[in-house]
Amino acid sequence: MSSIRAQLRAFIEDNFLLGARAARLGDADSFLERRILDSTGFLELITFLEQTWGIAVADEEMVPEYLDSLVNVEAFVERKRAVAAQEAAR
User: Fold this and answer.
1) How far is CA 35 from each of CA 14, 30, 58, 82, 88, rounded to the nearest angstrom?
2) What averages of pLDDT result for each successive group of 10 residues across the chain (90 residues)?
3) Whether 13 contacts 37, CB under 8 Å
4) Coil, helix or strand for 16?
5) Is the whole model's pTM more than 0.85, yes or no?
6) Which long-range contacts (CB under 8 A, 24 or more apart) does 74-80 make?
7) Directed axis angle between helix 70-89 and helix 39-53, to 10°?
8) What is the DSSP annotation of 39-70?
9) What phi and psi, each to the nearest 5 degrees, are found at residue 15?
10) How far is residue 25's CA from residue 13's CA, in Å, rounded to a whole number?
11) Which positions ≥6 away from 16 have C-beta within 8 Å?
């Protein structure tokens, strides 16, 4: 498991699952379908991503395709960090 995914899992478990059901949270499980996050929870997740990895999440990026599972969020963070690194190298 990547460091990003491990940190995300810990954040979700600590802040939303409070230790319960943690063993049953699969990497690709939908936060919406499992009712893990609501609209306020997604805002907390976005704040966590921005503060932890120094990325900015644009309004149009606040969609399930990017933010609805550990796998999706991990891929999103990796893409955002790669783009930031490329821009910084210019």
Assistant:
1) 15, 8, 23, 30, 38
2) 89 84 80 93 97 95 95 97 87
3) no
4) helix
5) yes
6) 74/2, 74/4, 74/5, 74/8, 76/49, 77/4, 77/49, 77/53, 78/4, 80/53, 80/55, 80/56
7) 40
8) HHHHHHHHHHHHHHH-----GGG-SHHHHSSH
9) -100, -25
10) 9
11) 36, 37, 41
